[in-house]
Write a structure and sequence with these properties.
Elements: H1 10-26, H2 29-37, E1 42-47, E2 62-68, H3 72-82, E3 89-92, E4 106-112, H4 121-131, E5 132-143, H5 149-159, H6 163-166, H7 176-182, E6 186-194, E7 206-213
Parallel strand pairs: 1-2, 1-4, 2-3, 4-5
Antiparallel strand pairs: 5-7, 6-7
Amino acid sequence: MAPRQAVRHPVFARLWSKAIGPALEKAGIAEHRRRLLAGLTGEVVEIGAGNGLNFAHYPPEVTRVLAVEPEPDLRALAEQAALTASVPVEVVAGRAERIPAAEESFDAAVVCLTLCSIPNQHAALTELWRVLRPGGELRFFEHVQAESPRMRRVQRAVDATFWPLLAGGCRTGRDTRSAIEAAGFTITELDAFAFPETRVPSPSTPHILGTAVR
């Protein structure tokens, strides 16, 4: 059975657009968005586009972005952001596990703070493999499983209780690097770092940013 194309998280959508997103922008996430998208060319698919905060950072060499977002409130905000985007952006309803595009349609794919909340991460990465052309790039910026065993225990505890309920299905402790490789991608660049840097460690601060190739 195909997954439903809509995912309603209205409380999280408001929190993201009014509080979480602006706080991350204040902490300097724009620089990571620029790093994520630098050098992209041609046709790009972005899954979990949220409210479209990446759109302003796409380089002019990108000829088209298909932005897939299942949450209706966030998608409406993304449609507004697309109107002033620096490149042509088409915002569509859809799920990462069933991307509305033909095989080998794109030169690159972008995932940004979204693989943490997709119910079936492997299915989503397999779909990205399907829609990318041979040699196409997967650009990723995600918070991931911590290196510290103590923080991993914290991640498991919050993921089993309140965190997914408050954060739109997000899991803090996913081993996303291994999942990308298990889907058949070859990671060619990888930067691991804490973001945002805080005095008190948070289960969502370990991040990776990089490139993988189909």
